[in-house]
Amino acid sequence: MHPKAQSSPKYVRWFFFLSGIVATVAYRIIFLLDAYWIEVAWYVGTIGFILYFGHRAIIEHKRAKLVKEYGLVEAIEKSDVEPEKKSALLYLIKTTMTSKAQYNSAFIFILSVAVLVMNLAMDIWAAVA
Q: Using CA atoms, how far apart are residues 14 and 8, in angstroms rounded to an integer?
């Protein structure tokens, strides 16, 4: 099996899954918190989104690249797989190549990093001023 086609260990997948869950919960509970805990929840949520969406962008890019590198669309089209299964496989493979999920995840990742850096700078500025 090609190294690029191997999944991450289960604990790594769980880590990123839980990062996304924790980040989402942290953002959703902000309205319930006082000022100090709002900031804590915001940092937890933002860092969680950086981890989760950075990972998702990499995975989606990797999937699309594997489909292209291995000519999977053509391989399935030429295969003797029964028509209904072939249609389902082609749908999965083609949508992996055309999905904009990797760009969406990359955008959220980049924006989250930028906002985190700006907020850290503002927090540091406020602390020294």
A: 10
User: Is it the case that residue 6 has pLDDT exceeding 90?
Assistant: no
Structure tokens at 29: 């509970």
DSSP string, 43-88: HHHHHHHHHHHHHHHHHHHHHHHHHHHTTHHHHHHHS---HHHHHH
Are 17 and 5 in contact by the 8 Å Cβ rule? The answer is no
Rounded Cα–Cα distance for residues 68 and 101 (Å): 16
Classify the phi-psi angles of 2: left when phi > 0, otherwise alpha if psi is within -120 to 50, otherwise beta. Answer: beta
State pLDDT tens for residues 78-114.
Answer: 999 999 999 999 999 999 989 999 999 999 999 999 9
pTM of the model: 0.87
| Rounded Cα gap, residues 82 and 34, in angstroms | 59
